[in-house]
UniProtKB/TrEMBL annotation:
Subcellular location: Membrane
Organism: Ilex paraguariensis (yerba mate)
Lineage per the UniProt record: Eukaryota, Viridiplantae, Streptophyta, Embryophyta, Tracheophyta
Pfam families: PC-Esterase, PMR5N
Family: Belongs to the PC-esterase family. TBL subfamily.
Record's protein name: Trichome birefringence-like N-terminal domain-containing protein
Annotated ranges, domain Trichome birefringence-like N-terminal: 65-117
Keyword RNA-binding in record: no
Major subcellular site: membrane
Membrane topology, from the record: Single-pass membrane protein
Length: 422
């Protein structure tokens, strides 16, 4: 039997089994990590696309009780529920602890909605509800960032249980789309990389090196997700940031114009035009889809480059959350957000007629308050080991894991399992 030691600690302590004076022992965590790691194999038989089981009971929307998304970050002395050593799903670029980020204060906060309680996700209860179910997170690399957080949080189980951990059952070879299976719950989690939600030819490698403008079919939804769509019980979509990139727009397979393509003699249509069009089609598809599960649209999260942009030395060196009103969304993200909220509002009205369970997962405002949650220079392994003045391209867009987006799972738990919503 395997234990995840941090979670064991509180229950051991309560039951007085051990004079646990060590606190949270990095050593034991390391041991658990190695044991967990050596346990992963099998399950390759579970590799087909998952299909929709019966939804046991539709979750009735509750009357306006509480807006989970307005609140404050408050100190949380317990800290994160996993570490760089207890969770193996974290990608190196977001593994700030492993990469040597020196401060740890950013781990000791939790999201506290202003008018209601937000308990920490209960992995056991969540997994129990997810028996025979499938989740998909669909979008860009922030969705990938989130899936790792979700897997880490769910893999942490109470002490007397066998550790439940997800086994990877699919990988698209590029690490962009993946699928995991929690065998004892027959629960499947997928992440599908579809940064535009529409069909796009992308000439960019995983390091962001691009050889050609994106070619976006603004009138075609991406079959990468649309063909599997009915097979998922729960879906969280997101998009946004990729629309900023140099892109040629196609409609009916003909070039319509572009966004940022100097020298190409094409009409500049603006990224807002394209995002508006794609989201309109996307939501039309969703609200008329007769989908029986639960569908979230997650709003785009802000970046926090200060004193410059990502390409000219901008960084994110803050070590604490800020209060509401201290930071503002940059103009581009503001535009994205307006488009998302407008499109969602229209869609939600239609969804209530067609019976599709559509929810907004509005993490943009609470994310704005966490400039301290990004890897910054610690996207790289010990970036200043050789030269403490090294010039580093900072990542002030993705989120450290563990880190602020672990709270997203608490919000999910409230909305999905406890049926809370605003
Ligand atoms: C985890 O992070 C700590 C420092 O935060 C570091 O000492 C340790 O080596 C890291 N472990 C791994 C496996 O990266
Ligand atoms: C899960 O699926 C199995 C096999 O189809 C079935 O026996 C079991 O009752 C299902 N459990 C739930 C909670 O739906
Ligand atoms: C697992 O869940 C899927 C639905 O997601 C269902 O089709 C399948 O029968 C389940 N398998 C078992 C062994 O319960
Ligand atoms: C740019 O496009 C317009 C309209 O398609 C065309 O008339 C013009 O000759 C083009 N200019 C160049 C430099 O190719
Ligand atoms: C930005 O630059 C100003 C002045 O050089 C400095 O005081 C501030 O701390 C910097 N902010 C960040 C986040 O690095």
């Amino acid at each position: 039997m395997l234990f995840v030691w941090k979670s064991c600690w509180s229950s051991l302590h309560k039951r007085n089994y051990l004079p646990v004076k060590l606190g949270f022992s990095i050593f034991l965590l390391g041991l658990a990590f190695r044991l967990l790691f050596s346990q992963s194999s099998g399950f390759s038989e579970v590799s087909e696309a998952p299909f929709l089981g019966k939804i046991v009971k539709p979750i009735a929307p509750l009357k306006g009780k509480c807006d989970l998304f307005s609140g404050d970050w408050i100190p949380n002395p317990a800290g994160s529920v996993y570490t760089n050593e207890s969770c193996k799903y974290v990608f190196d670029h977001q593994n700030c602890m492993k990469n040597g980020r020196p401060d740890t204060g950013y781990l000791y906060w939790r999201w506290n909605p202003r008018h209601c309680e937000l308990p920490q996700i209960n992995p056991e209860k969540f997994l129990e509800m997810m028996r025979n179910k499938t989740w998909a997170l669909i979008g860009d690399s922030i969705s990938r960032n989130h899936v790792q957080s979700l897997l880490c949080v769910l893999s942490k189980m109470p002490c007397h249980e066998e550790v439940e951990h997800a086994v990877e059952v699919y990988d698209d070879q590029e690490g962009r789309s993946k699928r995991w299976h929690f065998s004892s719950y027959n629960f499947t989690v997928s992440v599908i990389w579809s940064p535009f939600l529409a069909e796009a030819a992308i000439f960019e490698d995983i390091n962001g090196v691009s050889t050609h403008e994106v070619e976006l079919q603004i009138d075609k939804l991406d079959t990468k997700w649309s063909e599997q769509y009915q097979g998922f019980n729960y879906i969280m979509f997101s998009s946004g940031k990729w629309f900023f990139k140099s892109t040629i727009y196609y409609k009916n397979n003909k070039i319509l114009g572009c966004h940022y393509c100097p020298g190409k003699n094409l009409t500049e249509l603006g990224f807002d035009f394209a995002y508006r069009k794609v989201l309109r089609d996307f939501f039309n598809f969703i609200v008329t889809s007769n989908h029986k599960g639960m569908i979230f649209y997650r709003t785009s999260t802000p970046d926090h480059f200060e004193n410059g942009s990502w390409f000219d030395g901008g960084n994110c060196k803050r070590t604490e959350p800020v209060k509401e009103g201290v930071l503002e969304l940059n103009e581009m993200v503001k535009i994205i957000r307006d488009i998302e909220l407008t499109a969602f509002e229209e869609a939600a009205a239609k969804a209530s007629e067609t019976g599709v369970n559509l929810r907004l997962f509005d993490v943009n405002p609470l994310s704005l308050l966490r400039p301290d949650g990004h890897p910054g220079a610690y996207r790289h392994f010990h970036p200043f080991a050789k030269d403490k003045n090294a010039k580093i391209v900072n990542d002030c867009l993705h989120w450290c894991l563990p880190g602020p987006i672990d709270s997203w799972n608490d919000l999910l738990m409230e909305m999905v399992v406890n049926g809370k919503d605003d």
